[in-house]
Amino acid sequence: MAPFKWSPSGEGLLAGLLYDWIGSQTFFAHILAILLLVIQGFLINAIVIENRLSNEVNLFPGVFYVLISCLLPDFLYLSPVLIGNTFILIALVELFSTYKTPSCADRIFNAGFWTGVASLFYAPFIFYFILVNAGLNILRAFNLKERLMVLIGLLVPIFLTGLYYFSFDRLDYFWEVQFKENISFLGIEAGAGGWNNYVKVLLFAGFILFAVINNGSYLTRRNIQAQKKISILYWVMISGLFGAAFQKNLALEHFILLAPALGVFLAFTFTELKRQWAESLHFLILLAALALQLIPWQL
Q: What number is the average pLDDT over the span 233-259?
């Protein structure tokens, strides 16, 4: 890989504790990052297969998720956002299971709870409160009690963590690390300009535009349940982009938030293409990934 300097951004309190234990760029940190990617890839595949989001049963969603999550040199570390993605995927599992389920208070609470846990690793995940509420609006009729369940679930892990630090008279430390150091409107990381970063941003802008343009093809020949759940994946991207506006020292690894949705959408496209075109698409993305890893961006 080309020389690259990296340090965590958006680091929540639990991410800081984990880094104090195993470090952020040690051998064990890299092993944990690989394990998380494998687990997340399996979770993505389970979500797509269990909810019949794709017209064909295959493992492409997990493959493309891992590919996107390793696309940039900025992504090849145990970043807070990579850790938090694990809990967001669990929250999606809980959210999707509420469809046509009369008694699912536990699932609704859990969706908010795991979102709150994710925010303790990467602060912008707190804005995925938007995702969970939008998902409930899509899957279920409006119910104020259910919205309160989500809010309570979101706040419980944050409250309990704050209570722990309060018991040691360190509430100010909790507030400083979890919120003050991470929340700022349009707080782009210093030195984030330059052609190298513009290329990377444009690449992901292209992915997003591609997913939006192909929205119609993703929804055709699917049942109503699959269509609703696929539309929720767009809210994954909307919530991630909204959170970017309030992240202090915003860095490129923030794009990993988009990987679950983009991985599924690219898998849909790959599955529906003719074989020769599908192979070309996969080759081009793989070639782009290799180029982005090997080009000495920082020189």
A: 87
